[in-house]
Design the sequence.
């Protein structure tokens, strides 16, 4: 077991946890949080290969910065969508929001 | 090094798994905050200091607030029009994730990864030079994306006044 293995294993576990949140839980907020968790797993992979990989400069580090910024924007828009859905349907269950018009 | 990282990985992973399993939504959001804090400490241990602080600032400080506000603003009404989620769907989802997990795990652990020396850390000055030099356009575009996302989020979440008419 090298440090790279540990990083990749944690990343895979976080990704699977996020996938469970997206696929199994029916709550829109938890689905969004699961997506955030999967993004975090991807960021962790960038960091791991930047630090322990064959060495490709600082590109991985910079990419993670941009990825965090885009994830923040995604969270803001997602939560606004959840609030809008709640205003229309009085629930945030994903299964209830099955119409575009409304 | 490996042992420390493994312990930190567990510290990060346990709250994340608990957050997905817990029924109470507020407990779940708070557990997610714990998981993000653990991930920030993990970044710190790996050597990405600036990323660790940026991650803590954005997730523990920003996204968690947005999530908690969203949880509080969307309390469920008295009657839930839908039946409770079926266990069959849950079993299907867990099976799908188990398949993905087995594929990822086997591919990670059966790959002979080269054991490289950790590359030297990047100083904050170097990172700043990178962001202000070769990645300047990307930085400005990210700022633009954040601005557009904030305005869009406001427009989506703001309540419509009936006097305005139409869906502006």
Sequence:
């Amino acid at each position: 077991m090298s440090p790279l293995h540990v990083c990749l294993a944690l990343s895979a576990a976080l990704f699977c946890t996020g996938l469970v949140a997206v696929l199994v839980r029916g709550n829109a907020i938890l689905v969004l949080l699961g997506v955030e968790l999967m993004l975090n797993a991807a960021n962790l992979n960038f960091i791991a290969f930047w630090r322990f990989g064959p060495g490709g400069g600082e590109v991985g580090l910079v990419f993670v910065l941009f990825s965090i910024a885009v994830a923040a924007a995604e969270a803001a828009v997602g939560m606004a969508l959840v609030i809008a859905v709640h205003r229309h349907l009085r629930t945030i269950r994903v299964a209830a929001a099955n119409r575009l018009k409304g | 090094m490996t042992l420390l990282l493994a312990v930190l990985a567990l510290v990060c992973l346990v709250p994340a798994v608990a957050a997905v399993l817990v029924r109470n939504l507020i407990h779940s959001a708070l557990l997610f905050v714990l998981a993000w804090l653990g991930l920030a400490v993990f970044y710190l241990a790996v050597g990405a200091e600036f990323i660790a602080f940026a991650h803590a600032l954005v997730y523990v400080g920003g996204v968690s607030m947005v999530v908690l506000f969203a949880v509080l603003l969307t309390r469920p009404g008295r009657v839930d029009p839908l039946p409770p989620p079926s266990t069959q769907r849950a079993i299907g989802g867990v099976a799908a994730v188990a398949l993905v997990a087995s594929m990822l795990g086997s591919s990670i652990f059966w790959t002979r990864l080269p054991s490289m020396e950790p590359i030297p850390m990047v100083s904050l000055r170097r990172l700043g030079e990178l962001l202000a030099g070769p990645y300047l356009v990307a930085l400005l575009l990210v700022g633009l994306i954040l601005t557009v996302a904030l305005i869009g989020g406001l427009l989506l979440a703001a309540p419509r006044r009936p006097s305005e008419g139409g869906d502006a």
In short: Chain A has three helices and no strands. Chain A has a mean pLDDT of 88. Chain A touches chain B through 72 residues (CB under 8 Å). The helical segments of chain A are 3-23, 28-52, 59-89.
